[in-house]
Design a protein that fits this description.
Elements (H helix, E strand, L loop, with lengths): L16 H10 L14 E6 L2 E6 L2 H10 L4 E2 L1 H12 L8 H11 L5 H23 L6 E3 H17 L8 H13 L1 H9 L11 H24 L7 H7 L11 H32 L1 H15 L13 H13 L6 E5 L3 E3 L2 E3 L4 E4 L1 H4 L19 H6 L18 H16 L2 E5 L7 E4 L1 E4 L4 E6 L2
Parallel strand pairs: 2-8
Antiparallel strand pairs: 1-2, 3-5, 4-12, 5-8, 6-7, 9-12, 10-11
The structure holds protoporphyrin IX containing FE.
Length: 452
């Protein structure tokens, strides 16, 4: 029998009132009504705020690409993320966003990425060697392990490994921070002032403070000492706004660095965590990945030029991000009254692209809940609308780190799968939980079986 990977069951009836508010705090994705998975548009309101879910690919294109300037990041995103990320590339709009995006772009060009591949592979090998030192059949939390590996990579690539960092403290700070973001959403909806404490408020502030202090120190040091080869920190320090000639001050640099560190490791680590889970449910696909790796590498160590050739491995990662998109919701706010299909979003309305639901939409996919990497055969991809699959978003705000993340995920998966089989703890069902990203609620306990 085909295993059905864990999924969110939408409520039988759309939630309202207190049940909706409580659901938002607990796990917002569980409050999405079933219509979001079946219809093109779903409009409703909560506490006087109107919101519109857009699940249709052509309308998604309108919101994210064609009329992108009519939809800003909005008050909820800003209020949830600004305490940590300030007004940097992810949270700003307009001219302020544009020049920060331009400043960081060289880091993500194809040639720059090629230079980063050896660091990615060596961090993956580091994790593999650590795992090899464990007794056979050790149970690990793959979610943790992947977080650590992608964190090593982000520091090695974006900061050239600068600074003396304690990854568990950073990870704790990020988790504490994200845990309280659902409360922030609720507080925004009820119109509470920013300073009003809520559960998790102290943790949120503490998480943000820890992260900022750590980066502040690095920047002071980088400004004092001559800069090394081009990493993101150097690029940001040297950047100039072409319109105003202004450089970034320490706060701008720090907020952008923190954005890249958080946006750049948590998402990829979740893509890998869910991939390992799905492969554990589908041993035949796992075997095929392993055979591909063995053929491409001829049984040797993975090299940068191999990554492009891992076609099926990349398909598996794409399919994992369809079923469990690391960023399951793209949130916008209408800047002016605008028609979206047969609905109207008024200025100030929340407009949501529910990536998780689009990726499992009844009208867009056959057997949407089943794992089938063949969906990403080149021909199948060509045959469908580009906007049915949007793990990295689309349009001007598309993920700047997409190429980076795809190469990184393939490098890590190939390195670890050629040395280990991972098996989920029997009976364990990982529940997806939305906390800005899509995390397995209680981690991903898996047994490590070395391949002899
Ligand atoms: C599998 C991994 C990743 C996923 C699924 C992902 C997903 C996304 C999505 C959906 C957006 C668009 C948000 C929106 O339109 O509101 C985004 C933006 C962004 N991502 Fe990623 N991301 C990943 C990896 C990375 C990496 C590795 C980096 C950096 C090293 C990164 C840095 C960013 C930044 C800076 C933005 C903001 C871009 C802007 O607003 O101009 N991401 N990401």
């Amino acid at each position: 029998m085909t295993a059905v990977p864990s999924r969110i069951d939408p409520p039988a009836e759309p939630l309202s009132g207190l049940r909706l508010l409580a659901g938002i705090v607990k796990n917002p994705i569980e409050t999405w009504p079933s219509e979001v998975y079946k219809q093109k548009l779903y409009q409703s309101s909560i506490l006087g705020h109107r919101y519109l879910f857009v699940s249709d690919p052509d309308l998604i294109k309108q919101v994210l690409v064609d009329d992108a300037d009519a939809f800003g990041k909005g008050v909820i995103t800003r209020r949830a993320l600004q305490p940590a990320l300030g007004d940097a590339i992810l949270t700003s709009d307009g001219a302020k966003w544009r020049w920060q995006r331009r400043a960081a772009a060289p880091m993500f060009r194809h040639e720059s990425l090629l230079r980063l591949l050896p660091s990615m592979i060596s961090c993956a090998q580091h994790t593999r060697d650590r795992w090899l030192s464990y007794p056979a059949s050790t149970e690990i939390d793959v979610a943790r392990e992947m977080m650590r590996t992608t964190f090593d990579i982000i520091l090695a690539t974006m900061l050239s490994g600068r600074g003396n960092i304690d990854p568990p403290s950073i990870e704790r700070a990020i988790t504490e921070y994200l845990e309280s973001t659902s409360w922030v959403m609720l507080m925004t909806l009820i119109g509470a002032p920013r300073w009003l404490p809520h559960p998790g408020f102290r943790k949120l502030r503490r998480g943000a403070k820890y992260l900022k202090q750590f980066l502040g120190g690095l920047i002071v040091e980088a400004r004092r000492k001559p800069l090394g080869p081009h990493d993101l920190l150097s690029l940001l320090i040297e950047a100039k706004d072409p319109e105003t000639g202004r450089s970034m001050n320490d706060d701008d640099v720090r907020d952008n660095l923190l954005t890249f560190i958080t946006a750049g490791h948590e998402t990829t680590s979740l893509a890998l965590t869910w991939t390992f889970y799905l492969l554990s449910l589908h041993p035949a696909a796992e075997e095929r990945v392993r055979r591909e790796i063995a053929t491409v590498t001829a049984g040797g160590e993975l090299r940068p030029d191999h990554i492009e050739q891992l076609t099926y491995t990349r398909q598996v990662i794409s399919e994992a991000m369809r079923l469990y998109p690391p960023a399951p919701l793209i949130a916008r706010e209408a800047q002016r009254d605008i028609h979206v299909g047969e609905r109207t979003a008024k200025a100030g309305d929340f407009v949501y692209v529910p990536v998780y639901a689009v990726h499992r939409h009844e009208l867009l996919w056959d057997n949407p809940d089943l794992f089938a990497p063949e969906r990403f055969d080149a021909e199948a991809v060509r045959a469908r609308n580009r906007y049915v699959y949007i793990p990295f978003g689309a349009g001007p705000r598309i993920c700047i780190g997409m190429g980076f993340a795809l190469a990184e995920a393939a490098a890590i998966l190939a390195t670890l799968l050629s040395a280990f089989t991972l098996r989920l703890r029997p009976g364990y069902v990982p529940k997806p939980k939305l906390r800005v990203t899509l995390r397995p609620e209680r981690g991903m306990p898996m047994r490590l079986i070395p391949i002899s």
